[in-house]
């Protein structure tokens, strides 16, 4: 693995985990959105990761292959006075669990930090090699 491929691999991890953190932020922000433009409550968004490969099949990093919606049903809460309540008085809230989002956010944050650490290690190794060549 060359110096640049190590940096590219870490950079792809940074990019993928930033997308994941953006999705988590959107999920938390819309945790109480009962009405969307498409109708119905907000649906939790998920990032699907895939390996990033070259033409020979070598793994170069990671990417977000697609964005998906969580298939879990919405939470039904009895609030007869709510403007979005159904005839029985239940309001459909998004299928967003704040605790699960926080766990995912911590995992994404740790992976982001790990990629930065790997990138700094690769940079330090390159700088030490340059220092040895100068001596």
What does this structure look like?
Helix content is 47%, strand content 21%. The radius of gyration is 21 Å and the shape is elongated. Helix 1 packs antiparallel against helix 2 (98-134). The relative contact order is 0.20. The protein is of the alpha+beta class and 135 residues long. It has helices at residues 3-29, 98-134, and strands at 45-53, 59-69, 75-78, 90-93. The mean pLDDT is 94. The two termini are 25 Å apart. Strands 1-2 form a two-stranded antiparallel ribbon. The chain has a two-stranded antiparallel ribbon with strand order 3-4. It has 2 helices and 4 strands.
Distance between the termini: 25 Å
Helical/strand content category: alpha+beta
Average predicted local confidence, pLDDT: 94
Helical amount among residues, as a percent range? 40-55%
Number of helices: 2
Total number of beta strands: 4
C-alpha Rg (nearest Å): 21 Å
- The percent range for strand residues is 15-25%
User: Within the largest sheet, what's the order of strands?
Assistant: 1-2
Order of helices and strands: HEEEEH
Main beta-sheet annotation: 2 strands, antiparallel
What is the approximate shape?
A: elongated
Contiguous uncertain segments of 5+ residues: none
């Amino acid at each position: 693995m060359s110096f640049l491929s190590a940096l590219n691999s870490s950079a792809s991890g940074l990019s993928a985990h930033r997308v994941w953190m953006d999705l988590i932020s959107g999920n938390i922000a819309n945790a109480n959105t009962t009405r969307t433009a498409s109708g119905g409550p907000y649906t939790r968004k998920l990032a699907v990761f895939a390996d990033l490969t070259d033409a020979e099949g070598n793994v170069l990093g990671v990417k977000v292959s697609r964005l998906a919606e969580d298939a879990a049903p919405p939470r039904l809460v009895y609030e007869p006075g709510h403007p979005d309540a159904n005839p029985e008085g239940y309001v459909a809230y998004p299928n967003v669990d704040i605790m699960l989002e926080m766990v995912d956010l911590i995992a994404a944050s740790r992976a982001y930090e790990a990629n930065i650490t790997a990138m700094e290690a690769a940079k330090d190794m390159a700088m030490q090699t340059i220092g040895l060549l100068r001596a």
